[in-house]
Batch of 2 targets.
Target 1
Amino acid sequence: MPRDKGWSIRPFFQVVAGVCLLLALVLDPGCQPHHEVKLTEATPIRDSHAVPAAIAAGAESGAADVGTMHATGTRVESASASNINNVPPPAVAAVASPTDGFEAMLKRDPLEALRQLHQEFAAADRSYTCVFTRQEMLSSGMGPEQDVSVKFRSEPYSVAMEFTRNPGLVKRALFVKGKWRDETADEEELKDQALVQPAGMAGLLIKSLKQPIRGPLARKTGRRAIDQFGFERAIDLLVKYCDQAKAEGALTLTYEGEADFKGRRVWVIKRMLPYTGPDSGYPDLVAMIYIDQEHHVPIAIHTFSDTKCDAEHLIGKYEYRDIDFNADITDADFEPATYGL
């Protein structure tokens, strides 16, 4: 019997796939809590030029409160009175090369340096490829460490992600600003959608489906939406919460010196916010920010719920490697047909 032309089985399969994705949240081992955390700590670079500095920004007037610094060898401690809960940040090894340019600004005013990074990167309109590693504390517990091969285009804002290690529920995700929208959604934040290729059981039933980038499924599998990916938006989030805490007189932001992070020479910034838990209005208590000296981008951000800054208190780990700012990025990289979807 001929099928009625007005009827389509595609919505049915999308519903089935959606149900499978929800079931996979429970059944898929990649979504189970208590995954092991491995943290790579930066190795301080020691030379004869020990020039530590710290800025404790927190006065409601917006002026920086410069803490008194005590240097003994390579250990640096801040005596600023604005530390969270009156607990000084842990002593860290910090040695800097002769000051010049951007590093001098980091020493003098780390927040202004972050603002400059954001402005420079936004003006550059840069696209790139990279390998992105993330591990996050989710509502179900600590998620697995994932590797994601990423193609990024700044205009129009576009992200192509392929989860190559511990994919969990998603094998691939494509997002192009304004391309996939559900105008019938009740809430504005649910209108923007990504095209998702499911992994595991759901992937056996359907090649792809559209999912809200801030929907329930997205929130259960990651702390950040796909439209928050990228160096510019990472810096934007860092500055946003710095400004919020500074307005409340509760920001501590310090330059910790130079270091080697997985073979890359970096500048290290430590941020402390008045975080008291998930509902405090802040994402973390401590963030360790590693800024690549060649590219002037944060190649790693580790966030914690405690000043111990250890694996037990990790909230989020975000790292970038194999960054190629000269990659040939085309429209085809963000088209479903390129990947057989």
Note: The two ends are 30 Å apart (CA to CA).
Target 2
Amino acid sequence: MERITPDFRTGIVRGTATLRRPADELVSVGARPRVRLPSPPERVTITPLWLRARDLVVDRLPLTGPDGRRACAMLRAVLRALMPLALASISAGCGVTLVASPSPQLVLPTFTPTAEIAPTVTDLPPATATFAPTGTPAPTETAAPTVTPQPTASPTALPTVTASPIPTPDHTPTAIVQLTPIQSITHDTIGQVLTLEGNVVETASFSAGFKYTLDDGTARIALLMWHSVFDDCWDIARINRGARVRVTGQVTEYEGQLEIQPRFGSQVKAIRPAPDGPAQREIGSLTGADAGDLVTIQGEVLRTEGLPAAVKVFVADDSGQILVFIWRNVLDRIVDNAGLGTPGSEVRIVGRLQIYRSNLELVPTLPHDVTVLAVP
């Protein structure tokens, strides 16, 4: 028997071995993965690292019967000794499992075949009886812990807080407004900004604005409101004849008459709103003797005639009809003024009665003197 040395660096096992037996059969494993069993055999040469069962070729020596089993046993011993780092399998009717061996040098065993050897059956270890698992005893119920009541703290009474009375002032102070009597306003005060109060006793309109005559009991002065100031005044609907007004503005003069002109609508406030207008009269009851009076009528619109600077609205009731003359600056600021151009609209008008070319006319001076009650 010769030594066989594996090469651990390359994983290749090379070497030869001589087997002794009467027939001296030779088992040879070449560089290619094939195994041949010539007759008569003398030596075994091992080169490859892996052997596969399908690469095993037998020449004249079948791998069945006693000789085949002896050849398989010999190959099993050889490969088991020469495969220290690999696992392989040879299956040619007998099945061989290779187990790696860490020994660097191994000796092939001597093996002498006999004419007829019965297959050796390895006794299996006796079966070990498997016992049924022992039942795990049920856990013993643990009594719930007893809760020890905590001592209850006695509430401590909070001290009573007595509210101290808040001192109430005897009266709420009111901002004092320095009012200037109209009587004291003269040409020497022109250009000054003053505040005054007065009752509205007369109203008028002109192309650029509206004019109110104020009387505080000492004298009269004209309140001039340009269109921008008029449209900016929140209290303008409450300011008419009979209203009391407070105004702050600059003293001016026009054609020898003193005026006060506010710059903003907020500088004009209604201290007391205007009362209702004069009592309503039938249109047929109005005559020339009423010229100059302030009257109130109510009726339906018959027709409308337009002029460059004004509009004529003919209004009638069951007693008669009358012409209502409305300037454009007044017409533009009447609420729902489109109803004045619709025949059959119900309107109520407060105005000054005048005679023009022998005909009676009613002239409203402020936009709020005309109210459109209904439009068909």
Note: Residues 3-107 form one domain.
